[in-house]
Amino acid sequence: MKMEGKELRIKTFLSHNTRRIMTYLIAAFLLILLGYYLPRVLPGDYVTAMYSQSQAIITEEEEAWLKAEYADKESFCEYIIALVTLDWGYSLVFSEPVSDLIFSALPWTLFLLGSAHLLAMIIGFIAGVEAAWRRGPLEKLSVGLMTFLEGAPEIATGILLLFIFALVLGWFPAAGGETAYAGYGMFRWGLDVLYHTILPFITLFFAYLPGNFLLARGSMIVILKSPFLKTAYAKGLPSLRVRYGHGARNALLPVVTRFGLRFSFMLTGALVVETIFSYPGLGTLLFKSIALRDLPLIQAIVLFSSLLVLTVNIALEICYRFLDPRVRNET
Amino acid sequence: MKHNIFNVLIINRWFVFGIILAVLLVIVFTAGAWFSRYDPYNASFSPLSPPSARHWLGVNDGGMDIFSELMYAVRNTVLFGVLSAAAALALGIFAGLTAAWKGGLTGNILMRLSEVIMSVPPVMIMIIVASFMRPSAVTLAFTLSLVSWPTTAKAIRSQALALRERMHVRAARDMGGTSSYIIVRHLLPELFPLYLIGFIAKLRMAVFMEASLAFLGLFDPARKSIGSMIRYALQYYYLDVWLNWLIPPVVCFSLIIMSITFLAISLEEVFDPRLKEI
Amino acid sequence: MIKDTRKILLFLISFLFLLISCLPFHSAWGGEELRIADSAGDWGYPNPFRHYPRGPGYVRMSFIFDTLIWKNNNGFIPALAESWNYNPSDMTFTFHLNSNAKWHDGKPVTGEDVAFTVEYFRTHPYRFIKIADIEDVQPEDGNTVVFRLSTPYAPFLSIIGASMPILPKHIWETVEKPEVYDDPKAFVGSGPYLFGDFDKTKGTYLYRAFVDYYLGCPKVDRLIYIRSANPLLSLTSGEADLANIRPEMAKHLAKKGMTVISDEHGWVKKLMVNHKKWPLSETRFRKALAYAINQSEIIEKSHRGFASPASYGLLSVDHEMYNPAVPTYPYNPAKSIQLLESLGFTKNQSGMFQKNGKELKLELLCSTITAAGENVADRDGEVIKNQLQHIGIEIELIHMERTTADVHIKKWDFDLALSGHGGITGDPVIMNQMILSSYGGGSVNSSRYDENRQLNEILEKSVSEMDHKKRTELVYEAQMIYATELPSIALYYPHAFSAYNPEKSVHWFYTKGGMATGIPISQNKTALIR
User: Fold this and answer.
1) pTM for the full model?
2) Which CATH architecture group holds C65-190?
3) Residue A135 has what pLDDT?
4) Which CATH architecture has domain B2-40+57-275?
5) CB contact under 8 A, C377 and B47
6) Residue C512: count of CB within 10 angstroms of its CB
7) What are the CA-CA distances from residue C45 to residues A102, A280, B43, C56, C456 (Å)?
8) Which one of A148, B46, C220, C236 counts the least CB within 10 Å of its CB?
9) ipTM higher than threshold 0.85
């Protein structure tokens, strides 16, 4: 009986999701198409970008020779095949596989973005739930503060933090992700990276925190009014369990959904913060590749970041379906 | 319908804050533009001079009056946001209603398209378009609206679907009302709160995007914008320009975003939380 | 909840204290090290085939690969070659190599390597050097190598001798595709530093001293490049010991005990003119432009005085072959208007020039937009627009991203454009490259002006004139013609500064005439040699 139910559930899950999966496949295909054609319609090419302002002054013949050498000969079909076989091409600038470049920049971006995101979500969520639970002057104050913070853009907080803590007080470094070639052991290296990350991290954290807090609080207030919680309370379950086991579980859904929907938009803020603090990462790589017309690299970064957003969305949707009983039993 | 909404809104304190802030900003910047005695492109003053009676916020590196520059910058940034938000809203309403009313293949295609667009980070498209094609700010605003309409469309579609099944709309349909009659008479006006929410959300996003792109140096550098002012000023971070050159645009930008945010939050609080848009 | 919050707060505060107690985060490295801050960071892997074809890329390579000779402020100095001479009768350059010179893997540097390098560059070109005029290269005995030229080539010492990095034959002879060769052996050179690391994401480089360097072990054990957008902050906080700085920072840094050095006038900003398009094809029209443009106003407005007016003859006023008699075009609106009127232009009601009912309207391309701003944006375009509009020429200012603008200029799809280049204190062959399309057609800064046959001949002759005095005369004449014809209009030389920490007892300097082909960067490796 139980097994059957589970199988049935998986089956309905799959059948219900074929449409979604198809959608995502089409989306991925369109993104690849976009990633292939968009950089190609843009004016300028690698040889012009690299050599026309160069210290190494070249003649017209040399230029023609170089252009032929770096001409882009890949057709869309070949590109797709290469993508499928995980060959993302060679960067013209670095003459290195594009995937190597992306994967050396990605950890920094993921570390900064991911930690800010996750911590903002967790802390924002818990604080929101607690605020909804115990209403009072502290709650009012925190709601006011958070709404105020929600209105402070990354550019503003980033610049103020840079000014106060790096320039005036000199407590934190103004640039970079670590002390280069310092030769630290693991522990000190870790501290060094944390130390360099603090300012950009705080900037992003305070950009993400208020939204999560306000949303969690809002949903929790609605949930607290619902009868099932009163029942749970009446059963004499411990307050913490009622709060999180029964109540907050449901308040988690909108927070998770929001994460997925905002993820792609949040990249903008991350680029700004990377620029303000000269932090290494995908943003720096993207700007460089655009400035130097490194076609394979631009293509790969656009595609990769879009696929990343897509993946996050799919993953969240699956989480969502298993988290929310209503969605699960739909169909 | 409309005065009802206002009655509900006016007792919400975030709405009051937001509106007061917005009205204040509008007054300050209209009056400011009127007061600023100089053409913001007039580069004939002595560069980097400190604030004085003639130049309230001093003069920038290019010999331009910072106060006049700021007035123009705020106007440009906000106009960009309004333009892009209005276009995105129009697109979203159109797509959302079409998808809800027509359903079937058209609706399906529209909704799949919106999902595809939602999975592309808008900033990637904007960076590539802005850095390669040298479009005007207006074109960029429309480009942004092209990638930002789907969230509005989705919200409007689901709400319109629910509305379609409501009694009075059903009655209108049963009584033989044409599609256009029902759409114009019932759906369009009754979705009004959604437009407000959608517009405000898009406005916030577009203003933010404009300032960020200008800050990253992807706009025409001669165009006055809050982002490009911050960018220029930050190049002189080692001089005494913080108080008169860097902080004013930063503060103005924060105030604008804040007033928009307060409005967005109040709208979400007042209307059904399920209508919430990000 | 309040108790929880307190605990969390306490934890956070103690964590912060722990962090701050570990400060300052200076390197754990014990030996002497020197850090150079750079705003862009990444300039490619430091070997001839993988560095970016830009000055900073060359400099990063030059620490690892030595050339036959090198430059300091007194001109050419020995590097791999202890001595050299030219024999005009059979057009040969003979170089005597330093017998102590070793590759980083311990093998000696020989004439074979030099001959191999030239041959290798013939099939795998290195764009910094021009080797077409070399007939052949013969290693005579182990330490002597003879270059035979097919035609006399005056820039030989600077374009080849002091610019061509010598490659180890035993490593490269088996390499077919040097651009993708990423074995550690690709970084074996004979220079003062060994390649340590290059991190393309962070834009950092690490070099280690080569103990067996033939001129003695360099002063500093570790040389490091870091990326920093805030040179002033990096210098004052001790994160960096050398950085290029902006002019306004000089005073502040000097007060903090830094040594500030400034470059000669080695880089020129100029107004490119589309001389293939009427009315810009008229010399008189170009002269009218020159009279209408006020060099010192641009310098005042756009650079707050930190620049000097440029010579209209292209070569820098600091060049030993600079001709002080070149024509000048001091700001003179009346003269400009007079010239325009002589071309048949008349003013319309609104005071703007027109001819046959068509308003005179020009586009001015500016390209200060670079993604994420590598360049410092200036306001030159806005100032020039005002100046030209003042005399009655309608100007549309178009800002473009760098490479997009370059494409327009290359295709002659522009009227006026702002551009700039260095090399004007280096070998005078820069005149050929920046004027004639056969020398610099691939560069966007080249005027590609082939119309004046006399100028063509003089420039061609000057390159093959081995006699210094005669060459000077030819270059003088070329400058005269250039300044009269004005294929492009020189505007100003921006002042370039860098600052270093003198406590490291490494005294950096800007090389006279620029390093190698004329690179105006203060990171000359001879500063690190004892």
Assistant:
1) 0.83
2) Alpha-Beta Complex (3.90)
3) 74
4) Orthogonal Bundle (1.10)
5) no
6) 19
7) 17, 18, 43, 11, 38
8) B46
9) no
